[in-house]
Amino acid sequence: MAGAPREREESLDVIQRELTAFARRARAAAARLHPDLPLVSYTLLAHIDHRQGCRATDLAAHYMLDKSTVSRQVATLEKLGLVERHPDPDDHRIQVLHPTTAGVRALASTQASRRAAYRERLGEWTADDLARFAEYLLRYNATGDGTDPR
Amino acid sequence: MAGAPREREESLDVIQRELTAFARRARAAAARLHPDLPLVSYTLLAHIDHRQGCRATDLAAHYMLDKSTVSRQVATLEKLGLVERHPDPDDHRIQVLHPTTAGVRALASTQASRRAAYRERLGEWTADDLARFAEYLLRYNATGDGTDPR
DNA sequence: AAAGTTAGTTGTATGCTACAACGAATAGGG
DNA sequence: CCCTATTCGTTGTAGCATACAACTAACTTT
To answer: Which one of A1, A9, A17, A119 makes the best mutation probe of the B interface by having the most chain B beta carbons within 10 Å?
Structure first.
């Protein structure tokens, strides 16, 4: 570990700094993209949609949020008519979450403008670089925490 | 635009999803890393340190924050004795921000544990991958917004 | 059946943020 | 030299997101 090149440290610092900067800006950027949808709720809705049908606990684990936070966010989403809860027939504690038709629609429209923003931002990148960047991010996020096994 | 490979779209989606997930988790992760330092303030302090001496406006631009937000955060940092304000002799509106000795110290200790966390998370990565990941992040952040010119 | 565990909700407090209205300092015309 | 931008920063106010703790309901284990 002594001989490890100093370049690694530098790369780590850059990664750390840039990820932080990104995280910091993300809120503002997201708010600009979909001023209508309550922002965080959008994220949760997207995740609910991505894995068709998931529990509140899954959301909490995936995003490292307290269950109370998720509970309120889901309540908001439900009030907006974007998400439905179906009690699990096998276990009445569990509510399985699904996007409603309106939810899917809202998601699609937001997704579109969001994708456009990304496309503009990453338009110059080669498909190769995009693929590698995506792979790095996946690897980075997968490593970290026990968020969810798969 | 029609012939653009669908792979690009997929990569974009992955990038979007993973960056979002990261941003979402970042708060919780950061809170774990330095429970003492008010979290956001840490970020600002790091930036103040990184560019030796900057104005509140610079911080706001860099992180896409409202000046009022920065004002309060800086006030907090000052109250904690981590940052000093020096009025610019040429322009009395401007306050140049500098970390205090305590600020540098706090930053160093946090930086250390933070770096350790990153090192653990990215320990398996080759130096090459790290460098490329860092470069992608730099490129990504640089492109986006008029945060700051350089 | 009693004790323990898991899913989710609600009460409460706090942090971070934006927007708007303001004060102070400077810069640019007439 | 005043009068009007413009720029930098603060304070008032309000809202969202979040955590922690206490609680209910439902399942599980012994």
So the answer is: A17
> Looking at the DSSP assignment, which residues form a beta bridge with residue B84?
B98
Residue A41: CB less than 7 A from any atom in strand D = yes
| Beta carbons within 10 angstroms of residue A108's beta carbon | 10
Q: For position A144, what pLDDT does the model report?
A: 55
> How is chain A split into domains, by residue range?
38-144
pLDDT tens profile B93-146: 999 999 999 999 998 888 888 888 888 889 999 999 999 999 999 999 987 554
Out of 2.30.29.50, 3.60.15.10, 3.30.450.40, 1.10.10.10, select the CATH number for domain B39-144.
1.10.10.10
- CATH number at A38-144: 1.10.10.10
For an interface test with A, give the residue of B17, B119, B129 to mutate (most A CBs within 10 A): B17
